[in-house]
Amino acid sequence: MNNPDIYGMIIGATIVLLILLCFIISFVFIYKSRQNRYQLEMKEAKEQYKQEILTTQLEIKEQTLRMISQELHDNFGQVLSLAILSLSAIEFNDPANGMQKVENISELLRRLVQDLRDLSKSLDSENISKAGLPAIIKFEMDMLEKTGVYKVSFQMNGIEQRLEASRETVVYRMVQESLNNIIKHAKASSIAIELNYLDDMLYIDITDDGKGFDMNAVNNTEFGKTGAGLSNMKKRAALINARFDITSTPVTGTAIKITIPFVLQTP
Amino acid sequence: MLAAAFLSYLVTLRGKVLYWRIILLYLSLIAVTSLAANYLRFFSQVKNNLFLFHVYTPAEYVVLCWLYYSIIVNRVVKNMIFFSIPGFIALSVFFSIFIQRFDANDSFVIIIESILIISWSLFFLREVLLLQQETSVIKYPLFWVSIGMLFYFVGDLFVEGLLDYLIKHSPDLAKRVYSFGYIFKYLLFILLTTGAWCNYSPKRR
Q1: What is the residue-averaged pLDDT of chain A?
Q2: Residue B136: which H helix or E strand, with range?
Q3: I need a surface site. Which of A4, A218, A258, B28 has the fewest CB within 10 A?
Q4: Are strands A201-208 and A190-197 parallel, antiparallel or unpaired?
Q5: Pick from B129, B180, B187: which is nearest to A31 by CB?
Q6: What pLDDT, in 10s, does the model give residues B27-74?
Q7: Cβ contact (<8 Å) for A23 and B129?
Q8: HSE (CB half, 13 Å, CA atoms) of A234?
Q9: Cα–Cα distance between B166 and B170 in angstroms, integer?
Q10: How would you classify the pairing of strands A190-197 and A243-249?
Q11: Is the pLDDT of residue B91 over 90?
């Protein structure tokens, strides 16, 4: 090889090396910027998730306080009023009658104490994590049945598997809101909840025999707005990798199906 | 440089990682072919050693396809790689028998091989970019391996693309272009060696 050839080789090699260097630098730069963008998106998603969980917990607390307020007014207030009335009507000159009235008042107060105990469970904010979803949903159904307005049915199939605490909170909130919607809008006489634990999924079916609604009109009504909104429930379900499906007709009532996989899928 | 790359992969051998062994196999294939070619050229009666490369090229393609098949995640691309192997071998045999015989340079087959390997390298680099599975891409051995393959086969495509024409019309220039191809080979070994050491930590073994 003569000198021009060697120079040509050196120049050629330098050009190739420069192109290689530019390629590597560009690739690393693009990789880093995509990585930063991805990490930012992950951080935002985590923040949004945390916010959503906090909002859900707050809504549960508000719901609990509303329920307590209603119980105090409807149940305790009336029972105590009845007890006071009965006490003031006791005739001391008729011991047998008086004893009977005292017995009745005692029975009323015993039931009141039991109702207070039941209510105190709902004040415990750790209730879901302690008792688990089936127990807490059954408690909600029992409270509904006590009103005497609804015929309730609760069934659990399979072996209970716990989810992460945050996911259980969101699922409980979705069930709670579904029941609220039934109470407010459905004019139903019976409500059924079924929990099906399979190997990899939990299915929750909530059905009522109410008047149903036109699903096409959902977005134009109050259903589409905050909190109780169906779109909000679907959004919350998506947040915990679950599915929220609803079918309703004006004749057959409404059926809600919540599907929750036990394992969170990764991309 | 080949010996340095081979020793690097041997020293930093990750027992449970398949691609490490495939790269060692690839380097062994290059070493065996180079030794055989040089022996035939300098020490034996056989002066035309080009038939070796008619065997080497499909073998090289199979090994590299195995490498990319094991590291690429996308199912569609994996299937493409898998089904390209018998197709390429059949094409190589056809070309060797009918188009560019065993005593001629198999430039057509090398060009096709280069295009395919460049495609697999680009697919893999795209996947690295999209999946974002590594915290630092510079410390990812397969990044360097893939860049090395990409540049080597781009160079090979350039050299082999010109060689047949130049041999007929300007043998001197053909020699220069062929020598220029060595730059890409050296780059390949340097980048493979970089891949072996970029993430090495003696404690990890």
Answers
A1: 81
A2: none
A3: A4
A4: antiparallel
A5: B129
A6: 999 999 988 888 887 777 777 777 888 899 999 999 999 999 999 999
A7: no
A8: 9
A9: 5
A10: unpaired
A11: yes
